[in-house]
Amino acid sequence: PVEFPSLVIFQIFLQELHAILEAELEGRPYNTIGNFLEFYKHFRSQDAPFWEFYHHYDAEILPESLSCVGLACCLIDSIMNSSLGFVCPELKTALFLASSEEMVMDIDVYCSCSPPSSAFVVKEHVLVALKVLVEGRSGIVILDPGYHVNIPVVVMSDCMFPHTGWFVLSETPKVKREYRYVIEGDFVQWAVRETRNNKTKCWKNLVYIKQRFLSHISVSEKRNLVFNFRTLVVRNKREPVAGMYCNLEGDEKFTLFYQDNVGKRVEVKIPFKYFYSERTNNQFESAIASCATQVRYNATL
């Protein structure tokens, strides 16, 4: 772990880290559409059955289409290339990619093995972690650009200050999401509280922190390629501001979101089949143009 002899020094460190994280969120979109299209192009260029093709396919991080894996890798690079990396060269070996399992149904069974049993793992998500000692107290800093978390989350083993505790990740007219992280042995339990239509749903994710995750490309990035939900999101320093998402199985529509002239979020759902039509719907065309402009793509999309 990186040692901080005083709380003041640690807080200054967090401020610098926060600025780098905000710049990364603002500068790099979350994009799982581009890598899917590239994957599809490779599949169509050969004759093997899909599962044979997928088994032998070598996933890679595309600079123009970054999932949580690519965003986490880029964040580490940006930290090390910053003044913080110069002042704290030990970050080069201390920062690491950590794997995360989402919506774990049986926490006790999953945590009964370290590392987790391959029978239970999916490794859906990847984030950045940094083990710290603050005035002799152990903890970990979680950095998660893939889930648009705009603060360095401090998770102290004793849950005392500067432990982050519950915080609001995002709040829109439709849904409010809150997170909390707690260290439990070799894992960080990441609690999610989601409120939608005055109904609250809670679940827990797990982050494995005993070892760095070395298979982030061959496991998580490759798994992402066959995940049905595709997303393109542009963020500012605090939150998503524009983008699109779709479910490739059953839903058959794009949801575009962007900000209107007064900064209010607008959502428009457009059926896939519309893009094969004459495209005469003025509302759809206006939404496509506004969204394309705000995600910095060609407005003639």
Structure report:
This protein folds into two domains: 2-226, no CATH class; 232-299, no CATH class. Helix 1 packs across helix 4. With 301 residues, the chain is an alpha+beta fold. It starts with a strand and ends in a 7-residue tail after the last helix. The mean pLDDT is 95. The protein has nine helices and 14 strands.
Can you tag this structure with a few keywords?
single chain, 301 residues, alpha+beta, 2 domains, nine-stranded mixed beta sheet, five-stranded antiparallel beta sheet, 29% helix, globular
The structural domain count equals 2
Assembly context of the chains? single chain
Low-confidence stretches: none
- Given the helix and strand composition, which structural class is it? alpha+beta
Mean pLDDT: 95
- Strand composition percent: 25-35%
User: How many helices?
Assistant: 9
Shape: globular
Helical content (DSSP H or I, runs of 4+): 25-40%
* Largest sheet report: 9 strands, mixed
Radius of gyration: 20 Å
Terminal-residue CA separation = 47 Å
Elements, N to C (H/E):
EHEHHHHHEHEEEEEEEHEEEEH
Explain briefly what this protein structure is.
With 301 residues, this protein is of the alpha+beta class. The chain has nine helices and 14 strands.
Secondary structure: elements and pairs:
Elements: E1 2-4, H1 7-27, E2 30-31, H2 34-44, H3 50-56, H4 68-80, H5 83-87, H6 91-94, E3 95-101, H7 107-111, E4 125-134, E5 137-143, E6 153-156, E7 167-171, E8 175-184, E9 187-196, E10 199-208, H8 216-224, E11 229-235, E12 240-247, E13 253-259, E14 265-271, H9 282-294
Parallel strand pairs: 1-4
Antiparallel strand pairs: 2-11, 3-4, 3-10, 4-5, 5-6, 7-8, 8-9, 9-10, 11-12, 12-13, 13-14
Helix pairs in contact: 1-4
